[in-house]
Amino acid sequence: MRRAMSTAISRTIDLRKGHPSERNLPHAALAAASRAAADRCALGERGLPLQYASNTLGTPNFRSVLSSFLSREYGSPVPAASLFTTNGVSHGLELACGALARPSDVVLCEEPTYFLAHQIFKDHGLKIVGVESDRDGLRTDVLAAKLADGSLPKPKLLYLVPTHGNPSGASLPAERRRQLVALAEEHDFVVLADDVYQLLDWRADKLPRLLSYDTAYRERCASAGDGGERDDDAAAYDPSQTPPSGAGEKSGSDGHVVSVGSFTKILSPGLRLGWLEAAPSLLARVAERGYLVSGGGVAPFVSEVVAEVLSSGAQNEVLDSLCADYAAKSSALVDALRAEGLFEVEAPPDGGYFMWVKLPDGVSADALLPVAEAHGVVFLPGTRCGYEAQFGGHARLCFAMEERDLLVEGAKRLGAATRELLAAK
Fold first, then answer.
1. Rg for the chain (alpha carbons), in Å?
2. What backbone phi and psi angles, to 5 degrees, belong to 192?
3. I need a surface site. Which of 164, 296, 324, 401 has the fewest CB within 10 A?
4. Which pTM was predicted?
5. pLDDT in tens, 269-287
6. What are phi and psi for residue 227, nearest 5 degrees?
C-alpha cells in the first residue's frame, strides 16, 4: 500500500531544509550590484579593493555602509567600529568560540536550539549544558535560579536565537532580554545572540535586539553619537605586524553580548557574508585569532558587492518582499495544519523561517518521519534539536522554501501519515 502511494507522488515536499526558495533569491539586484562593483574594479587601486584586507574587522567602506543600514533598520546607532565582517553566522560562532572560550569551558544552550550549532561548540572542546525554554524562549527565571544555587556550572558562553528562534519560532520578550543580559554581566559570561532572523520580522512592534541591553555597548553607542567612529578605535591592525599588546585581554569595558548576523536569510546564502556586532573590546579579542592575523579581514570582494546592494536600497526592497511572502506562507501552513485537527503550532510565526509543531500524544517524530516520507513529505524531528532534553513529540517545519500550495499539500500529507501511524498502534 505504502509503495503504491509513493509511486503516485510526483515529488517530495520538503519542510525540513531551512533554505529560501529560488524565487526569493534576488538575482537581478545582485547582478546590478556586481556590475556596479565591476565598474569600480576597473578604476584600479582607486576602486574596488583586491588587495589583502589589512583591517581585520573588514573593509572600512563595507562596515560604514553596513553601519548606516543597520542603524536605520534597528532604529538605534550601530557604530562602524562595533562591526566585524565574517563569512556568515557559523563562521562568526567559530571565531567567537575560539577567541572567548577555551576547551572544557561551559556553553549554555537554550533547548530546543539550532541543532547544527552543537558541532561548532564540540569542535572547540566546550561542554554543552541545556537550559529550559518555553513558548517565549529561554526561561531566564530558571537560569537565574540555577546560577544562584550552583546547580549549573559556571558558564563562559550562552548561545540562543533570541528572535524567531530556530526551531521554536519563539521571540524572547523584552523583560527576559533585560534579565538575561543582567545575568551575563553579574556572572561574567558572554551571550552569543544568533540574530540571523532579527530583520526577518513582520510584526508591527519589533523587539530590540538583545545587544541593545548590553551596558558596555550602550555606553559605546552613546559616546559614538551618529555611529561614525574611526576604525582605529577598535582592533584594526595590520596582520603582518605584531598584534597590539594586551588587545585581547579582558578589561572592565568588555561587553557581554555578541550579536551574530548574516545576509544568508535576508539576501543570499551563497554570498557567505555576515557580521559580528559587539563592544569593540570584545571584537579586539576575536581579531587576534591566528586565522585573521594570517589572512586579514574576510570577504573583501564580496562585501563590497553587498555594499552596493545596501547603498542602492535594494536590500530594503528584498526584505519587504520576503516578509510579505513568508507571512503569507506561514499563515497558509498554520491554517492547513490546524485543519488536519492533529497538530498544535506552539508559536504561530510572526517572523523567521520555522514553526515548532506538537504532534498528537503518543506519536514519535522519529517514528513518523519514514511514514511521512512514504506519503511524500519530510520534516526535521524534534529529537535533532535537543542536547540534554528530548523533543520526540515535536517537529520543526520550514515554510520558507516551498510555495503556498505545496505547503498546504504538505500539511495534508503529514496529517495522512500521522493518521496511518495512529491507526497502526
1. 22
2. -95, 100
3. 324
4. 0.92
5. 999 999 999 999 999 999 9
6. 95, -5
